[in-house]
Amino acid sequence: MAEIPTTDTSHYQRRRARELADAEFREEYERARVEIAQVDTIMRQLDARREASGMSKADLARLIGKNPSTVRRLFTAEVNPELKTIVAMASVLGARIEIVGEPSANTDSSTSRSVA
């Protein structure tokens, strides 16, 4: 069996380390990372609801008035979907999107809820 070649990522790792050493870059990088993670979480939850309902991506697209390729891309690519599209999909799938504050020392964590 042939060995799978590995990619040398040392240049990338050194460059990223230099960039993250800059406090302003690191702050922006972390902010973007959190935003991307939140969008990914919402899209995974919507896709799970879609699958559980037995609905195809094309069916969902038709119900929200979008092109099926657009909806497929929303679930498979790193994109930043419009809030209006997310809300439309959630509505069709029997869910709603909520804004929930992060628990803090001054907030009872039992009052926080996840996005449905």
Can you walk me through this structure?
This protein is mainly alpha-helical and 116 residues long. It has a single domain (14-111), classed as 434 Repressor (Amino-terminal Domain) (Orthogonal Bundle). Helices cover 60% and strands 0% of the residues. The protein contains five helices and no strands. It has helices spanning 10-21, 23-53, 57-64, 68-76, 83-92. It is extended and about 45 Å long. The termini are far apart.
Structure in a nutshell:
The longest helix is centred in the N-terminal third of the chain and has 31 residues. The chain is mainly alpha-helical.
Rg, please?
A: 19 Å
State the order of secondary-structure elements, H for helix, E for strand.
HHHHH
Domain unit count: 1
Strand proportion: under 5%
Percent helix range: 55-70%
The level 1 CATH classification is Mainly Alpha
According to CATH, what is the topology? Answer: 434 Repressor (Amino-terminal Domain)
What labels would you give this structure?
single chain; 116 residues; mainly alpha; 434 Repressor (Amino-terminal Domain); 5 helices; extended
List the helices and strands and how they pair.
Layout: H1 10-21, H2 23-53, H3 57-64, H4 68-76, H5 83-92
